[in-house]
Amino acid sequence: MNFRGGWALIRATWLSWLQYRSFFFLLAFGWMIPPLIYLFVWSTAAGEGTIGGLTRGGFVAYYLLLILVNQLTYAQTNWTVGDVIRYGGMNTQLLRPLAPIFDTLSSEIAGKVVYMLFVIPVTVLLALILRPELHIAPGAGLAFIPALGMAWALRFLWGYWLALLAFWSARADALLALQDTLTFLLAGQVAPVMLLPGGIRTAATVLPFRYMVSFPVEVLMGQVHGAELWQGLALQAGWLALALLLFALVWRAGVRQYSAVGG
Amino acid sequence: MYYLKLIRRFIAISIHETAAYRSNFWISVLNALLELGAGVLALVILFGQVETINGWTLPGVLALLGVYLTLGALRALFIGPSLEALAGMDGEVWSGKLDFTLVRPVDVQFLASFRTWRPLKLLDLALGLGVLVMAVVQLGYTLTFADMLTFVIVLAAGLLILYAILLAFSGLVFWSPGFLFTWLFDAFFQMARYPVGLYPGWLRLVLTWVIPVGVMTTIPAQALLGDLSPLSLLGSLLVALIFFVGATVIFRTGLRRYASASS
Which residue among B27, B53, B193 sits closest to A44, beta carbon to beta carbon? Predict the structure, then answer.
């Protein structure tokens, strides 16, 4: 592992991305909208009462946190991996004394910094207008950190191994879109997971998608605690291990059968 | 009928292009179904918790979703990809390839609006219409011919407004190449899947007067529900006309500024 080279790559990518701020701000704005819509829908629905124990202000807090976490864990770089493979850009990356995942990681980290420059001020502004209600227990705040870290790693690696399927199929985009739809449904965007009806709720608890987005938010808001919390963290770690394994397998097999196109 | 013949050719070419990626096709089908399921499920989950929201019932919001999906599908079928090829990321205005489009013996606005088709989106169109039928069935009354006619008219007006806004935004690219105006619009358009009345006052003003998504989706849905005032009907036609003329002027003025991309 060449970490100094990796760091240099991250810095270079970040600096070059900052030049395209307005483009990335626009992207980040677009990604904020779906959770924002459901923020308005649920907080209007709650009105003066409560739904599933959440008040109007509770929904606002939940969705504002979800906007932040969603942005932090969204691995948008996975969309470009397929193109890099398809158009032969992988050639240059393979010749470097660095694993190509560093290229993706560096855009990932560079992107996060640029997006946050936009998303944090906007979320703060929305919080000032919409008045969320949030009480954080100290334990919940502590558990939030590993939950968030694993959520990011899981979402990144999961998307990465799916994107690597482009080694075989010319287009893996549809799979990534599928993943986005499932995330919308099962990861607490359309409604907090605890409000989902029976069967879907079970699916959401077992499948990996919730652990990529809404799980850290639920932890921070104290919606999951005690045994449920440990169970959730264990499931999250399990999915992460599986994602890592799948990535390693797909990468090895894929690179072996890769042959570039174009000149 | 030269133009109709051209459109037929454009469609044929697009079908050939799409047919090259077969596995992507099946996943796209799956994704369209899943997205539809997620949209409907979102409403079912919401109305599992509340009876009405701001005076809207489940069939009403379902009708609105149907209109939203139908408009979105029509847009993705040809307006979106055609204008995207012109003004989107790496579009012709940006790369200077517009030179070759300009020298063709066809009206540029026509070419820019009908050139690229995504035949797969016909499926989305069918699903959108399916949701509309579902909503009507849920409402439990038979539509008269006059109801249907009014609905088709206001829906066409909605489509015209949608087209006009996209055209105007594409025209703005001539002033500021590289800025993806349509993405900004997309963010707001997503909000049209719920009644405008659901959003807080300041946002409602934007969605009514600046980017009239209310006219695009809420009015056709009201027509289907049978509570459309003649004033709304007239208003929506008038707005459509004004937007279309305005957008055409913006686009053509912008086109005159075009100075290719090389130095």
Answer: B53
